[in-house]
Specification:
2 domains; elongated; 4 helices; 42% helix; alpha+beta
Length: 95
């Protein structure tokens, strides 16, 4: 298994050797997504790390809810978009 530092070096190396341009923010986003999948809970990782969230409820690919401060809410990402799985395989990897 690769360490986080190795993963970062790999992404930087691929960026330099490819003809595809990504800016530093896109590179950071890619790195964070890979780290979440490889070392954490994927798309649920930010929810798991949020100490104010007391429950995470997954009722389907695009039906993810949280309980925060006693209120059930739809799970949203930092941009305010609904958090959702992209496939049944991605969802099933948590069971």
């Amino acid at each position: 298994m690769r360490s986080k530092k190795q993963l970062k070096k790999l992404i930087e190396s691929e960026r330099r050797s490819s003809n595809v341009y990504i800016d530093s923010q896109e590179e950071a986003d890619i790195l964070e997504a890979l780290i979440q999948v490889m070392f954490g809970y994927g798309i649920l990782d930010p929810l798991v790390k949020d100490e104010d969230i007391t429950e995470i409820m997954v009722n389907g690919l695009d039906e993810i809810f949280i309980e925060k401060n006693g209120i059930v809410l739809r799970a949203l990402d930092s941009d305010g978009k609904r958090i959702k799985f992209h496939s049944k395989d991605e969802n099933a990897s948590y069971y």
